[in-house]
Amino acid sequence: VQLQASGGGLVQAGGSLRLSCAVSGYTLDTVAIGWFRQGPEKGREEVSCMSVNGDGLSYADSVKGRFTISWNHAKNAVDLQMNSLKPEDTAVYYCAASTLEKWFCSWWLFASWGQGTQVTVSS
């Protein structure tokens, strides 16, 4: 499976961005798609994940109520709508795919990764 993330940019605090992760290639064994981020001098952390069949959805506590993950069936992509952005949301955002039948929204369980897209939130 190939993943292509896009939609990053520079936005003021309180603003919104919509990231998109285009999914292509062999996708039949893909079980879940996740968004992860790595901020300046920080480790990689989970943001939000969802199962391909729609029965699993999770958000990090830090983004609950502000971010929404969804399938964009028309584009075969997984979108991440980010509202009420904060400076601490500044990071490189990555999307990744997992083929594990039992998965959690933890980056080490996702084997296929796209390139990152930079999100910068100014105060």
Would you mind describing this structure in some detail?
The chain is mainly beta. The protein is 0% helix and 51% strand. The protein is built from no helices and eleven strands. The protein has strands at residues 2-6, 9-12, 17-24, 32-38, 44-51, 57-59, 67-72, 77-82, 91-98, 112-113, 117-122. The radius of gyration is 13 Å and the shape is globular. The model has no long low-confidence stretch (mean pLDDT 94).
Q: Main sheet, how many strands, which sense, barrel?
A: 7 strands, mixed
The assigned structural class equals: mainly beta
- Shape call: globular
Radius of gyration: 13 Å
Number of strands: 11
> Span between N and C termini?
37 Å
Number of helices: 0
Any low-confidence stretches, pLDDT <50, length ≥5?
A: none
Strand content: over 45%
Q: Report the helical percentage.
A: under 10%
Question: In terms of topology, how is this protein built?
Answer:
Elements: E1 2-6, E2 9-12, E3 17-24, E4 32-38, E5 44-51, E6 57-59, E7 67-72, E8 77-82, E9 91-98, E10 112-113, E11 117-122
Parallel strand pairs: 2-11
Antiparallel strand pairs: 1-3, 3-8, 4-5, 4-9, 5-6, 7-8, 9-10, 9-11
Short description:
The protein is built from no helices and eleven strands.
Search tags:
mainly beta, 7-stranded mixed sheet, 4-stranded antiparallel sheet, 11 strands
